[in-house]
Specification:
Chain lengths: 49, 232
Amino acid sequence: MQVKDVIAQCRTLADIGVQQAIFNMPNVHEIKPLEVFAREIIPVVAGFG
Amino acid sequence: MRIGLQVPNFTWPEGSTRIPGKLAEIARTADDAGFYSLWVMDHFFQIIMVGPHERDMLECYTALGYLAALTKKVKLGALVTGVIYRYPGILVKTATTLDVLSGGRSYFSLGAAWNEQESKGLGVPFPSLGARFELLEEALQITKQMWSANNGPYHGKHYHLEETLCSPQPLSRPHPPIMVGGSGEKKTLRMVAQYADACNIFAGIAMRSAGTTERSKRPRSAPSICLPARCR
């Protein structure tokens, strides 16, 4: 998934009342995905819902 | 919306000797990155959806205690604990210990369990689905009682506890958020509404069942939690 896809999915879920989305990251050991979430996703979706 | 992170796999390129260091790096990074919650599975064999069952799998509450010591802000939980794995009184003590030692940062999760292979493999009784749902409901009742001022006995169909003492009580008030795993309309969502603060469902199911959760009379304050997808 790309960043825009994650944000879009979070928007959809927030719109139906979901308050928290838990991401299953098989490549979490690479650390970079966490940095992308911190920089590009978490601040944006914090305003959803 | 809040974002959580589940670590589903401990088989990393560096090998099992590097698990402690890599897990610590993941936990500290997630904590600093602003993730709201950090989760590990409560399984003893790797699950088939992630990889071969022989792959590395850590016992979850031991791992969560390690994560509690490494982090400062992120909430911690098991996604989700199978009711058949531990006697419920001992499970509540384990979960309470995690909450106290993490400074009130824990979730408590419970589900009916599904992985018969690991249960048979390790000699854990794996009753019928109907019985497991009965165990789940009784375990939720025991949890609520142990996290209340009622230290009296509990007598259910399956479990009998003479003194439901839990001292210390959790630091989370009134208690750690209780999450029930699953999305079944007849039993699971009814238990969510009756006993829990959250439910754990997959993203696709969440979207299909937006109306279902309304029908189940789930408290409006209850956060739904789901696993949208893998992310790269």
